[in-house]
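Box S2. Input/output pair 1.
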Amino acid sequence: MAHVNIKQGQQARGVSSKLRLGRNVGKAVAKVEERKLRKVGNSVGVTIPVTILNDMGLKEGDTISFETNNDGIVLKRKDPIVTDEFMSLIQKVADENDAALKALVER
């Protein structure tokens, strides 16, 4: 599962020690980028840089999870439970077993 770690209080080369973005805990900094928090309705939001989206394999509509720990925040891509491939398989099974499924409904 791809993820990005955000750690507070660690010095990255040439950058203030506010936040550190990296690929895995304990590894070297892969990218350092800054974004402002902005009000979005009753919440606060932040944009994710395209380079990080690409590194994590994320696109619009994907779900991510935020895990907090003593070091900061871990962003993880949440893989969908129901995929397009799964839905295609279900449709194929339904098409092949239409009569049996209708009989079950009538029971």
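Box S3. Input/output pair 2.
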Amino acid sequence: MNFKLQLSLLFVLIYAILISISLSLTYKAFKTFSEEAFFDILEQKAHITLDLLTELKEDDTTIKHIIDKSSLIKTNHEKIYVFDGNNKLIYENGNDINFNITPLLIKKIRKDNKTEFFIQNGFQVCGIGYNYNNKEYVIIVIAKDSFGEVKLKNLKEYIFIPIILTLFLVFIAAYYYIKQIFKPIDKLNTAIQKVTDTNLYQHLEIKSVSRDLNQIAINFNRMLDRLNESFESQKNFNQSASHQLKTPLAIMSSLIKKLNPYSKQEAENIKLLYDENEKMAKLVDYLLLIDRLQGKAPIPFTYFRIDELLFEVSEETEELHDNFALLIDIQSDENDEKNFIYYGNKILLKSAFINLVNNAALYSIDQKITISLKAHKDNIYIEFINTGIYKLDDNIFTPFIRDNKDPSISGNGLGLHIVKTIINFHKGIVSYSFIENTQKHIFCIKLTKT
């Protein structure tokens, strides 16, 4: 979940809490007002009933008819009880409802001699203690405000549906507003992602309405300028130094070849000197190659067959490792020839594959190297496999890092770094693993077709 969505949801949550509290208080106030209004009606009903009972002299049926006509409420859930001073029921009118009137309730109403209101089992109850001609009466009116319940239910629906709709609209508005606020920051983030040592010209446009964001854009552009200047200076130095070294090293190699040793010791020293000079020359070549891969000059890509490239690598390396057996194992989905076609720089990949073969030859103990090629519709997997005694260092792809377990193996620690740089340049992945039980070194390359 991105930050803009989190802020939008937080804004909606705060709004939902505030509006819920406000509407809850409104609902509670309306409910209280509705209950109080109904209690007033029950109280008036009780007084009218008592007045009619004490003033009229007609028979019970006539009184009931008059009281019904005088009712201020029309409900199917209504009951009136009138008790004398001995708690004897002297009048009853209304529907049969499930409500228990206890002597304790009558006693409480008579003792307090005031109007009692309460709600029990969904019924609203009004009890009044009444004195007339030195006679005590207790009248209890029980009713259910069905109309009020319907109004409260409708009010809930009227509140709930608009809240959901409003929250949805608030979320859309908040997300849109926050998105507009974060637009300059998104541009900054996109620009940062595009910045590499070969692309330091991704400057931001300075046109935001926010002064703070403008300042961020200005500082970002200035930082890119400083980085670009530093990288250019470093690259120019590397190129200049490498080219300056290349010529004298070539001259030295030529002169060393012309030396005529007078003894076996001198011959060994000359050979050692020549080997070290060749190492330096290769190191310079590697530095120039890395600089080229990291430079701005475009490197051409073409379509070619990976299997054919591996056979070329095999032929060229056989001369250097004539005592080694190199086997190429090729597999493909559905034997589709198109699976072997790859779009890249053939020369660079060839250099990477040769480096891996040379590396396998250095650490192999059985003088066998296997290259496994698996071509699929979307990806190509190439494995360079040889048998070794021990696992190589975990940092073997780091420049100038060599495995020091066998001091007899020479090198400058740049070969595998070159491999990784070339494969990364092709948007591929190179990895190393060692299988303990079979003592197999495996360098795996994954190339994704574009």
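Caption for Box S3: The CA atoms of residues 391 and 436 lie 8 Å apart. The chain has a mean pLDDT of 78.
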